[in-house]
Amino acid sequence: MHCCQKSANSISESNFSGNGSSPYFAKLQNEDFSMELDSENLRPGSEASVTDANAVREVSSKVEVVTESETSVEKGRTENRFPLLVFLVGILASARRGFERLAFSEWLNWWPFWRQEKRLERLISEADASPNDAAKQSALLAELNKHSPESVIRRFQQRDHAVDSKGVAEYLRALVVTNAIAEYLPDEGSGKPSSLPALLQELKQRAAGNMDELFLTPGISEKQPLHVIMVDPKASNRSTRLVQELISTILFTIVVGLMWVMGAAALQKYVGSLGGIGTSGVGSSSSYAPKELNKEIMPEKNVKTFKDVKGCDDAKQELEEVVEYVKNPEKFTRLAGKLPKGILLTGAPGTGKTLLAKAIAGEAGVPFFYRAGSEFEEMFVGVGARRVRSLFQAAKKKAPCIIFIDEINAIGSTRKQWEGHTKKTLHQLLVEMDGFEHNEGIILMAATNLPDILDPALTRPGRFDRHIVVPSPDMQGRQEILELYLQDKPLADDVDAKALARGTPGFNGADLANLVNIAAIKAAVEGVEKLTAAQLEFAKDRIIMGTERKTMFISEESKKLTAYHESGHAIVAFNTDGAHPIHKVTIIPRGSTLGMVTQLPSNDETSISKKQLLARLDVCMGGRVAEELIFGQKHITTRASNDLHSATELAQYMVMTCAMSGTIGPVYIKERPGSEMQSRIDGEVIKILREAYYRVKALLKKHEKALHALANALLEYETLSAEDIRHILLPYREGRFSEQQQAEEFALT
Fold first, then answer.
1. In the Cβ-directed half-sphere of 560, how many Cα atoms lie within 13 Å?
2. Does 718 participate in catalysis according to the annotation?
């Protein structure tokens, strides 16, 4: 037993001692696996350690030699490269220890484990193949005892292998190392007798080769209890742990590699976007490429012609010169004629500025480069200037062509001191516009609805030296636009484009396109085969008045207030000279309002008279005065707040901008006048509003019966058209209602 204890101690010391080296460099000389040879090989002065140290010194000497050679070659420029050289040497010196540890220590630690696992697998396979060979079984138990004594105990107690004296010795050694021998010792506290003699007797029989008798059968008696030992798989199977670590390392490397590749691709894509306008090939992205317009490539999607542009004949006529220049430049250069470098299209949103630019490219059959002003700027300074350069470089390669910048006010507004990045983009655009020659065939066009804020350097002659205004279409233009959008739709007989154009003053091309589209969707929902005038009227009301909210709950009292309020507006508009004709009156909630009166001018207006402005003031006052007359001063509501706000702004516009005040005189007043002038303005505005209030009050008192009649009709029908209103109010205005009422009363009597 003393010998077993001593051997076990030597095994334990060999497994857990050593200065970071592995005990498996030793070569076993005999079947007892003596530990003395392992300890000898693991000393700091061993051959393996000396080899590693020599390799490290060799690497270090090579680094020093390379450094010295580079220093001698670059001796003439030492002053310039000395800081960089010191930096590189510092990095090498700092990384050397980590490299040595990674390249030598970790690998040398893993290599013995791998060899030991291979040896153990070989011994297990040989022992399992020859269960009656006691020598092979003993060799396996000796090897297992070095790493997992618990495995020796389990294998020995299976009783299905031959065992000799060496195997019994290894079993006893495992019992001592794991302290399992204590189970066979006597316990004075519980009075348990010692079972060690029986154990030794059984081991003696087993060593003699007697395998027929029961040997160490657990659980057959109190002396032989069944012991359950929990074994840590990580401690008992180092090969599994190494495989898991290797797999996790490989997976981590794959994930990091994928992230690096994705990051590199994203960076390449972004770098391509900075200067890739007009570029093509591998690495370029279509999302950053220019939207080039060409008849042969995309004739249906992008190419437009002057046939597709309606409602702006004057602008088209001016731009026909540009098309002729692109098609036949010799016609102009022969007489030393020069076409403008830049053409600036101005006008309200939706009038067709972008469509005109596309039509020029389609008529001339040249590439069309489209960029929005906001697309030049990014979060990085200098990106806008680079994109401007790339845009013009691509255009020069495709000349003759047209460059169109939409909403140029995003980069071409008046320069401010604190807008450095925008100034750089604008400076580059100015340079490019001055840089290319007239005969290169590049035409720069831009559009904006805010021409007043553009930088004067951009709009001067020589850059954007031709300004073309694209106005909203007149009645004839609206009719042409409607006919263009209705030509591919089945129409009912009651559809009249001319009448619809007359009833849509102020509508631009985008509004009319939206109107036709809403009507087509309405017809599809209703399931009709043709587009009718009713659906077009529905679309017009939806654009002008907003979407109906029929499901909104409104009390009877609130509905009555709304009816009288809107009736007051309608009666004032119907009986006041200069007011626009009424289009429709409704008390159905639309948008954010509970009701409204819509008015449409009979003709296109180019200017507004004072009479018309005063009529608008009177119409604004009609709702508040009607509430006061019918319900009393204490029951007026807040629904007139928007009307009063509009009336006040209109009165200020008349006094300050239009000089329609006799007290102040013909003076244009700035937005922030002095205190004395502001006081006079406020007094004049209040005077104009009070006069309008009293005029409306007198008018509604005179037509109070008509007010009741119209309000009752609204409560009954909720929406009244212009014809309905005329049918109700016309008898009261001509004075025929009293005569008709007297005749009816006489007939009844």
1. 8
2. no
Question: Could you give the CA distance from residue 487 to residue 485 in angstroms, rounded to a whole number?
Answer: 6
pLDDT tens per residue, range 105-162: 554 555 666 677 778 888 888 888 888 887 888 888 888 878 788 888 888 877 777 8
The domain 556-747 is placed in CATH, from the list 2.60.40.10, 1.20.58.760, 3.30.1370.10, 1.10.760.10, at 1.20.58.760
Looking at residue 611, what is its pLDDT? 93
Name the residue ranges covered by the structural domains of the chain.
113-185+195-208, 306-471, 476-545, 556-747
What is the b/e burial string over 221-234, where b = at least 16 CB atoms within 10 angstroms of the residue's CB? Answer: eeebeeeeeeeeee
369 phi and psi angles, rounded to 5 deg: -95, 115
Q: Which fold has domain 476-545?
A: Helicase, Ruva Protein; domain 3 (1.10.8)
pLDDT for 62: 42
What's the CATH number for 306-471? 3.40.50.300
Per the residue annotation, which of 150, 292, 407, 566 is the catalytic one?
566
* Overall residue count recorded for the chain in this entry: 749
pLDDT tens-place string over residues 362-390? 888 888 888 888 888 776 677 888 888 88
- Give per-residue pLDDT as tens, 696-715: 999 999 999 999 999 999 99
Q: Torsion angle of alpha carbons 723, 728, 729, 730, nearest 10°?
A: 70
Mean pLDDT of the chain: 74
**Tokens in use for 158?**
């299976």
Quick one: 740 exposed, middle or buried, by C-beta within 10 A (0-12, 13-18, 19+)? exposed
The pTM assigned to this predicted structure is: 0.56
In 379-463, alpha helices (H): 383-397, 409-412, 420-435, 456-459
For the record, the structure tokens of 239 come out as 């090969």
Residue 652 has pLDDT above 90, yes or no: yes
Contacts 24+ apart (CB under 8 A), 294-301: 294/367, 294/368, 295/362, 295/365
Q: How far is residue 673 from each of residues 649, 669, 678, 685, 743, measured CA to CA in Å?
A: 16, 7, 6, 15, 62
- Strand, helix or coil for residue 296: coil
Distances (CA, A) of 136 to 28, 125, 740: 15, 10, 133
Report how far Cα 234 is from the mean position of its chain's Cα atoms.
48
- The DSSP bridge pattern shows strands 291-292 and 342-346 to be unpaired
Span 256-262, mean pLDDT?
A: 86
Within 8 A by CB and 6+ apart from 530, the residues are 490, 491, 492, 523
